[in-house]
């Protein structure tokens, strides 16, 4: 992670912005424009984030960006709404669910290519619990945040599920050299 870790105050601001955006988005209200100038510099700077929603400990939506393309504060707001309404794996969040949802924000480092030779080499180089992983095969791509290692601690299984998420056979990574990128996250939640 770059030297600019978020302070606890900056994390609280982002969680509050995410909560306000989530509530407004689910109720079909337009988000009020963000007053970027009032925010700390790190939240004004471009940043990439994933916003994960859970309900009673179960995933309820997760959407984000791998590459920074807008101010971090905007990125978090956009993905809070998208996680509630646009995650194709789940029906849209309903207003009555809002009090039961918990928000988790992951701020990402820029993904960097992982150089490897063989499937065994790939297994050896990945760092469970530390690395978020992006797999790319042509136009297909998928990612798992580092938090997914908690549910899928086996590296081969992790890669298999990631191939499956990408829409490929789970053992594709064993037979074809895929583009692999890794990144780390700074994760915090309500």
CA-atom Rg in angstroms: 17 Å
Provide the helix percentage: 25-40%
CATH architecture of the largest domain: 2-Layer Sandwich
CATH fold name of the largest domain = Glycoprotein, Type 4 Pilin
The count of helical stretches stands at 6
CATH superfamily of the largest domain: Hypothetical protein ph0010, domain 1
Question: What can you see in these coordinates?
Answer:
The protein has 2 domains: 8-109, Hypothetical protein ph0010, domain 1 (Glycoprotein, Type 4 Pilin), CATH 3.30.700; 112-184, Hypothetical protein ph0010, domain 2 (Dna Ligase, domain 1, 2-Layer Sandwich), CATH 3.30.1490. A 4-stranded antiparallel beta sheet has the order 2-1-3-8, covered by helices on one side. The protein has a 4-stranded antiparallel beta sheet with strand order 4-7-5-6, with helices on one face. A hairpin with a 2-residue loop joins β1 (48-55) and β2. The radius of gyration is 17 Å and the shape is globular. It is built from 6 helices and 8 strands, in the order ααββαββαββααββ. It has 190 residues and is of the alpha+beta class. 33% of the residues are buried. Helix content is 32%, strand content 24%.
């Amino acid at each position: 992670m770059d030297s600019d870790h978020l302070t606890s105050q900056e994390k609280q601001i982002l969680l509050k912005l995410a909560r306000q955006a989530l509530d407004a988005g689910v109720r079909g209200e337009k988000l009020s424009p963000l007053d970027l100038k009032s925010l700390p510099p790190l939240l004004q700077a471009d940043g990439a984030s994933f916003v994960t929603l859970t309900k009673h400990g179960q995933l309820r939506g997760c959407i984000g960006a791998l590459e920074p393309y807008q101010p971090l504060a905007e990125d978090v707001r956009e993905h809070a709404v998208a996680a509630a309404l646009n995650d194709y794996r789940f029906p849209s969040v309903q207003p009555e669910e809002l009090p039961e949802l918990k928000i988790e924000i992951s701020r990402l480092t820029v993904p960097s290519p992982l150089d490897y030779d063989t499937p065994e080499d790939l297994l050896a180089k990945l760092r469970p619990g530390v690395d978020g992983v992006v797999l790319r095969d042509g136009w297909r791509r998928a990612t798992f945040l580092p938090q997914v290692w908690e549910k899928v601690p086996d590296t081969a299984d992790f890669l298999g599920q990631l191939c499956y998420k990408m829409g490929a056979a789970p053992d594709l990574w064993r037979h074809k050299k895929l583009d692999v990128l890794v990144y780390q996250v700074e994760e915090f939640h309500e």
